[in-house]
């Protein structure tokens, strides 16, 4: 199966299939990330060990996917996710329901896509970004787009397109009322990149069957002892939904 977005860029992915899996779990990463970040690999392995099919992929311009990093933003990644769902349909994997897991900026992507795409039957936000404009101002407000870098990382130049998109979206919290599928939110108390307030705010506005898991002491990428707690919370919740 080949994954390409609407502009023809090839998306790198890892698909691990299991017979009789109740869901195909699609995993999307956050800004400056990719599909092979250790905690996402661990999450996929935890799901695979439970007999659940996973597809983790890198958005265009990230990891080994084609495209320019400076073209990457939330709006484009919403389209990338749509292309992944299209490819799964074309590959005749419609027997499996789709669960999307998005970390950080990938969490905002998930809210936007799920609010308009009925193919996503379960939604999981890991340290999900909600107030996109506030994030841009807080994390990159002192950097000059076109000249500066994200968190001083030379391989991650800050583009005007990225900042403009975050400002235009502003926040995804008002979309919460339109999410009709079961929704799990997982956030760490020590996350200093996307504050836990983001998850708490959108959780309160959500009308769907919902659950918020707070991982005490966890940072933005669920390091160290927080990692197995995050994985366990996600795996157990998906299994619960499969039995519902």
Keywords:
single chain; 244 residues; alpha/beta; Rossmann fold; seven-stranded mixed beta sheet; 7 helices
Tell me about this structure:
The protein has a seven-stranded mixed sheet, with helices on both faces. The two termini are 31 Å apart. It is built from seven helices and seven strands. It has helices at 38-49, 74-90, 105-114, 132-140, 160-169, 196-205, 226-243, and strands at 13-16, 23-28, 53-57, 97-103, 120-126, 183-188, 210-215. Helix 1 packs parallel to helix 7 (226-243) and helix 2 (74-90) crosses helix 3. Helix content is 35%, strand content 17%. The radius of gyration is 17 Å and the shape is globular. It has one domain (13-131, 178-243): Rossmann fold, CATH 3.40.50. The chain is of the alpha/beta class. The model has no long low-confidence stretch (mean pLDDT 96).
């Amino acid at each position: 199966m080949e994954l390409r977005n609407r502009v023809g860029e090839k998306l790198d992915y890892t698909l691990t299939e299991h017979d009789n899996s109740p869901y195909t779990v699609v995993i999307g990463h956050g800004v400056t990330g990719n599909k092979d970040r250790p905690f996402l690999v661990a999450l996929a392995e935890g799901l695979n060990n439970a007999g659940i099919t996973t597809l983790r992929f890198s958005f265009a311009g990230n990891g080994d996917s084609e495209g320019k990093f400076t073209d990457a933003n939330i709006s484009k990644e919403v389209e990338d996710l749509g292309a992944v769902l299209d490819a799964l349909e074309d590959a005749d994997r419609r027997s499996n329901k789709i669960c999307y897991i998005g970390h950080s900026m990938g969490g905002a992507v998930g809210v936007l896509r799920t609010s308009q795409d009925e193919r996503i039957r379960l939604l999981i936000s890991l340290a999900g970004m909600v107030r996109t404009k506030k994030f841009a101002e807080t994390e990159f407000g002192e950097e000059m787009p076109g000249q500066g870098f994200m968190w001083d990382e030379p391989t991650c130049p800050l583009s005007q397109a990225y900042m403009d998109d975050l400002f235009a979206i502003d926040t995804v919290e008002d979309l919460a009322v339109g999410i009709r599928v079961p929704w799990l939110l997982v956030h760490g108390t020590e996350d200093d990149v996307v504050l836990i307030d983001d998850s708490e705010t959108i959780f309160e506005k959500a009308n769907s069957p919902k659950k918020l898991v707070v991982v005490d002491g966890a940072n933005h990428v669920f390091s160290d002892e927080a990692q197995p707690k995050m994985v366990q919370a996600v795996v157990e919740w998906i299994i619960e939904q499969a039995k519902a």
